[in-house]
Amino acid sequence: MIAADGARISPRPQQEVVVIKVAVLGAGGRMGQAVCSAVLADPDTELVAAVDPGHVGESVAALTGIDTDLDISADLSAVVDAGAAVAVDFTTHDVSVDTLRFLADKGIHAVVGTTGFSESELDSFREGFKKSNAVIAPNFAIGAVLMMKFAEMAAPYFDSAEIIELHHENKVDAPSGTAMLTVDRMAAASSDWTPDPTTSEVIEGARGALGPGDIRVHSVRLRGLVAHQEVLLGTTGQTLSIRHDSIDRTSFMPGVLLAVKKVGGLPGVTVGLDDLLEGAD
Ligand code: NAD
Question: Is the N or C terminus of the chain more exposed, i.e. has fewer CB atoms within 10 Å?
């Protein structure tokens, strides 16, 4: 190319486009189907394997409505055979614990939405992920990430706090991973909470479950809901309610795709999305 002054301009070097090969585990489930659709629709990602023993042989195109030749495989060997760089796991707690060991051993990055891990299980993942990395987030919706951040910020200014998490009728674990992470963060931000005044419960459990920092957590399971949480804080003469509602599973997909794209650059195990959102556009 010749510039106006006659000088030769070398063409801009073409940026190499690296498409990330992704496997989805739990591909036939509610979240797995949404992740398959999101990965298929994103030009920076390629769906190379879909695993779900409960849906073996089903066509991913039929599940997602997006054109692809991929069928659902029975087990994790499909992830290795397909050369996936990242595996996204939305299965169940027990399955996921074994899967993460497998992925760490094979050096495949993991993006994990499955909930219900204990602190000791997270520690064992931290031990295991040396050859590859993992992002584990109990909630991939940006609004939920902000809800947790706001609750943590507000905690030192209030005397009492309770969390109500509300989910669809098929959720098997309680309280939700989001509620547990929120309460952990609030308890770390303040240890100065007014003691519970209750001396008797007419029905056992009426006051919910006692979380870290003695913050109470209440779990609601109701047909028609997706994923919702309200953090209630109170002090003299005032209350603050911080509420987030996921009304559709697409709410989680930008966060999942962000994690898929960033997990390779985040050594070890990252819990929550906050670190990924710093500087994200
Ligand atoms: P679901 O029951 O609809 O789907 C789970 C799927 O996993 C099922 O299809 C099942 O057949 C499959 N499965 C079982 N064993 C498997 C194995 N060995 N390998 C691969 N797949 C296997 O559940 P869901 O509503 O999709 O939720 C899945 C998980 O995601 C739950 O733990 C839920 O709490 C969590 N979740 C997280 C977020 C988030 O943002 N992090 C959002 C929603 C749900």
Answer: C
